[in-house]
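Why START domain-containing protein? Reviewers of the renewal asked for a concrete example.
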Amino acid sequence: MPRYFALLILLVWSNVYAEPLAWRPVTVKNGIALYQQAMPSGQVRIKAEFEATASVSNFMKVMQDTTQAPNWLDRAKIVTVLSHPSELEYIVYTEFFAPWPFKNRYMVTYSRYQFTANGRLDLQITDRHPSLAEFEQLNDVEHLVRLKDMAASWLVTPLDGEKVNIEYQASADPNGLLPDWLTNKLVLKSALTTLSQLKKTLENSKQ
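Here is what the prediction returned.
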Protein backbone atom coordinates (compact mmCIF):
# COMPACT_ATOMS: atom_id res chain seq x y z
CA MET A 1 0.00 0.00 0.00
CA PRO A 2 2.73 2.57 0.83
CA ARG A 3 4.38 1.85 -2.52
CA TYR A 4 1.04 2.41 -4.28
CA PHE A 5 0.53 5.80 -2.63
CA ALA A 6 4.12 6.80 -3.30
CA LEU A 7 3.64 5.99 -6.97
CA LEU A 8 0.31 7.85 -7.03
CA ILE A 9 1.88 10.97 -5.50
CA LEU A 10 4.74 10.80 -7.99
CA LEU A 11 2.29 10.61 -10.91
CA VAL A 12 0.26 13.54 -9.58
CA TRP A 13 3.34 15.73 -9.17
CA SER A 14 4.62 14.69 -12.59
CA ASN A 15 1.36 15.79 -14.17
CA VAL A 16 1.42 19.09 -12.30
CA TYR A 17 4.88 19.95 -13.56
CA ALA A 18 4.30 18.61 -17.06
CA GLU A 19 1.36 20.93 -17.72
CA PRO A 20 1.73 24.70 -18.16
CA LEU A 21 0.07 26.90 -15.55
CA ALA A 22 -2.93 29.15 -16.12
CA TRP A 23 -2.63 32.42 -18.01
CA ARG A 24 -1.75 35.33 -15.73
CA PRO A 25 -2.47 38.97 -16.63
CA VAL A 26 0.66 41.08 -17.05
CA THR A 27 -0.65 44.49 -18.11
CA VAL A 28 -3.09 46.39 -20.28
CA LYS A 29 -1.46 49.23 -22.19
CA ASN A 30 -2.36 51.09 -25.39
CA GLY A 31 -5.44 48.88 -25.60
CA ILE A 32 -3.29 45.73 -25.59
CA ALA A 33 -4.02 43.06 -22.98
CA LEU A 34 -0.89 40.99 -22.31
CA TYR A 35 -0.78 37.65 -20.47
CA GLN A 36 1.93 35.19 -19.52
CA GLN A 37 1.94 31.47 -18.84
CA ALA A 38 4.73 29.74 -16.94
CA MET A 39 6.16 26.71 -18.73
CA PRO A 40 7.91 23.68 -17.20
CA SER A 41 11.09 24.75 -19.02
CA GLY A 42 11.30 27.93 -16.94
CA GLN A 43 10.41 30.24 -19.82
CA VAL A 44 7.05 31.92 -20.34
CA ARG A 45 4.53 31.70 -23.15
CA ILE A 46 2.84 34.98 -24.03
CA LYS A 47 -0.65 35.81 -25.19
CA ALA A 48 -2.11 39.16 -26.20
CA GLU A 49 -5.33 40.57 -27.60
CA PHE A 50 -6.16 44.01 -28.99
CA GLU A 51 -8.21 45.85 -31.59
CA ALA A 52 -6.84 48.03 -34.37
CA THR A 53 -8.37 50.29 -36.98
CA ALA A 54 -7.28 48.20 -39.94
CA SER A 55 -8.40 45.39 -42.22
CA VAL A 56 -7.33 41.79 -42.60
CA SER A 57 -5.63 42.69 -45.89
CA ASN A 58 -3.74 45.51 -44.11
CA PHE A 59 -2.46 42.99 -41.60
CA MET A 60 -1.26 40.65 -44.35
CA LYS A 61 0.52 43.45 -46.20
CA VAL A 62 2.34 44.60 -43.07
CA MET A 63 3.38 41.05 -42.19
CA GLN A 64 4.60 40.29 -45.70
CA ASP A 65 6.61 43.51 -46.02
CA THR A 66 9.70 42.13 -44.29
CA THR A 67 11.84 45.13 -45.28
CA GLN A 68 9.79 47.24 -42.87
CA ALA A 69 9.53 44.61 -40.12
CA PRO A 70 12.46 46.00 -38.06
CA ASN A 71 10.44 49.22 -37.71
CA TRP A 72 7.85 47.46 -35.54
CA LEU A 73 9.38 44.10 -34.52
CA ASP A 74 11.34 44.89 -31.38
CA ARG A 75 15.07 44.07 -31.42
CA ALA A 76 14.89 42.83 -35.02
CA LYS A 77 18.11 43.45 -36.94
CA ILE A 78 17.28 41.59 -40.17
CA VAL A 79 14.06 40.07 -41.51
CA THR A 80 14.26 38.58 -44.99
CA VAL A 81 12.23 36.11 -47.05
CA LEU A 82 14.33 33.11 -48.07
CA SER A 83 11.63 31.36 -50.04
CA HIS A 84 8.01 31.79 -51.09
CA PRO A 85 6.69 28.23 -51.69
CA SER A 86 3.17 29.44 -52.45
CA GLU A 87 1.01 32.55 -52.28
CA LEU A 88 0.29 31.89 -48.62
CA GLU A 89 3.59 30.30 -47.50
CA TYR A 90 6.86 31.96 -46.56
CA ILE A 91 10.22 30.83 -45.21
CA VAL A 92 11.81 33.71 -43.34
CA TYR A 93 15.19 34.42 -41.73
CA THR A 94 15.15 36.77 -38.72
CA GLU A 95 18.02 38.00 -36.57
CA PHE A 96 17.48 39.71 -33.21
CA PHE A 97 19.79 41.92 -31.18
CA ALA A 98 20.60 40.39 -27.79
CA PRO A 99 21.70 42.44 -24.78
CA TRP A 100 25.46 42.64 -24.24
CA PRO A 101 27.41 40.43 -23.62
CA PHE A 102 25.16 37.75 -25.16
CA LYS A 103 25.19 36.70 -28.81
CA ASN A 104 22.46 37.78 -31.19
CA ARG A 105 19.67 35.26 -31.77
CA TYR A 106 18.30 34.09 -35.11
CA MET A 107 15.51 31.89 -36.40
CA VAL A 108 14.46 30.36 -39.69
CA THR A 109 10.68 30.03 -39.70
CA TYR A 110 7.86 28.70 -41.83
CA SER A 111 4.74 30.89 -42.06
CA ARG A 112 1.38 29.80 -43.43
CA TYR A 113 -1.70 31.99 -43.89
CA GLN A 114 -5.16 30.42 -43.85
CA PHE A 115 -8.61 31.97 -44.11
CA THR A 116 -11.64 30.63 -42.28
CA ALA A 117 -15.21 30.63 -43.57
CA ASN A 118 -16.11 33.80 -41.65
CA GLY A 119 -13.23 35.82 -43.12
CA ARG A 120 -10.81 35.40 -40.22
CA LEU A 121 -7.11 35.09 -40.95
CA ASP A 122 -5.12 32.41 -39.14
CA LEU A 123 -1.34 32.83 -39.40
CA GLN A 124 0.81 30.02 -37.99
CA ILE A 125 4.57 30.41 -37.61
CA THR A 126 6.90 27.57 -36.62
CA ASP A 127 10.52 26.51 -36.89
CA ARG A 128 9.49 22.94 -37.70
CA HIS A 129 9.50 22.35 -41.45
CA PRO A 130 11.56 19.87 -43.53
CA SER A 131 13.14 22.54 -45.75
CA LEU A 132 14.39 24.86 -42.98
CA ALA A 133 17.71 23.08 -42.49
CA GLU A 134 18.56 23.64 -46.15
CA PHE A 135 18.13 27.40 -45.83
CA GLU A 136 20.02 27.52 -42.56
CA GLN A 137 23.06 26.05 -44.30
CA LEU A 138 23.08 28.94 -46.77
CA ASN A 139 23.57 31.56 -44.06
CA ASP A 140 26.61 32.45 -41.98
CA VAL A 141 25.29 31.81 -38.48
CA GLU A 142 28.45 30.65 -36.70
CA HIS A 143 28.52 33.84 -34.60
CA LEU A 144 24.84 33.57 -33.61
CA VAL A 145 22.64 31.41 -31.39
CA ARG A 146 19.52 29.82 -32.85
CA LEU A 147 16.13 30.24 -31.17
CA LYS A 148 14.61 26.79 -30.62
CA ASP A 149 11.05 25.47 -30.49
CA MET A 150 9.61 28.71 -31.84
CA ALA A 151 5.84 28.73 -32.32
CA ALA A 152 3.52 31.68 -32.85
CA SER A 153 -0.04 32.22 -33.99
CA TRP A 154 -2.04 35.24 -35.11
CA LEU A 155 -5.82 35.18 -35.38
CA VAL A 156 -7.22 38.29 -37.07
CA THR A 157 -10.99 38.75 -36.99
CA PRO A 158 -12.74 41.50 -38.97
CA LEU A 159 -15.08 43.73 -36.93
CA ASP A 160 -17.62 46.40 -37.75
CA GLY A 161 -16.31 49.92 -38.33
CA GLU A 162 -13.23 48.93 -40.32
CA LYS A 163 -11.56 47.36 -37.33
CA VAL A 164 -9.97 44.00 -36.56
CA ASN A 165 -9.50 42.02 -33.38
CA ILE A 166 -6.04 40.46 -33.12
CA GLU A 167 -5.17 37.50 -30.90
CA TYR A 168 -1.52 36.53 -30.58
CA GLN A 169 0.33 33.69 -28.85
CA ALA A 170 4.03 32.86 -28.93
CA SER A 171 6.73 30.83 -27.23
CA ALA A 172 10.38 30.02 -27.92
CA ASP A 173 13.50 28.73 -26.25
CA PRO A 174 16.24 31.41 -26.49
CA ASN A 175 18.92 28.73 -26.18
CA GLY A 176 22.45 29.47 -25.02
CA LEU A 177 23.44 31.20 -21.80
CA LEU A 178 20.57 33.65 -21.30
CA PRO A 179 19.15 33.07 -17.78
CA ASP A 180 15.41 32.48 -17.54
CA TRP A 181 14.73 35.54 -15.38
CA LEU A 182 16.37 37.82 -17.95
CA THR A 183 14.76 36.02 -20.88
CA ASN A 184 11.28 36.32 -19.41
CA LYS A 185 11.76 39.99 -18.54
CA LEU A 186 12.92 40.76 -22.08
CA VAL A 187 10.15 38.67 -23.68
CA LEU A 188 7.36 40.53 -21.87
CA LYS A 189 8.86 43.96 -22.49
CA SER A 190 9.63 43.18 -26.12
CA ALA A 191 6.17 41.72 -26.75
CA LEU A 192 4.42 44.86 -25.52
CA THR A 193 6.76 47.09 -27.53
CA THR A 194 6.28 44.98 -30.67
CA LEU A 195 2.50 44.87 -30.43
CA SER A 196 2.23 48.60 -29.69
CA GLN A 197 4.39 49.40 -32.70
CA LEU A 198 2.49 46.90 -34.86
CA LYS A 199 -0.84 48.46 -33.89
CA LYS A 200 0.49 51.91 -34.83
CA THR A 201 1.89 50.59 -38.12
CA LEU A 202 -1.41 48.92 -39.00
CA GLU A 203 -3.41 52.04 -38.28
CA ASN A 204 -1.00 54.26 -40.21
CA SER A 205 -1.14 51.91 -43.20
CA LYS A 206 -4.93 52.18 -43.17
CA GLN A 207 -4.82 55.95 -43.74
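The chain has four helices and ten strands. This is the kind of structural detail the renewal will allow us to pursue systematically.
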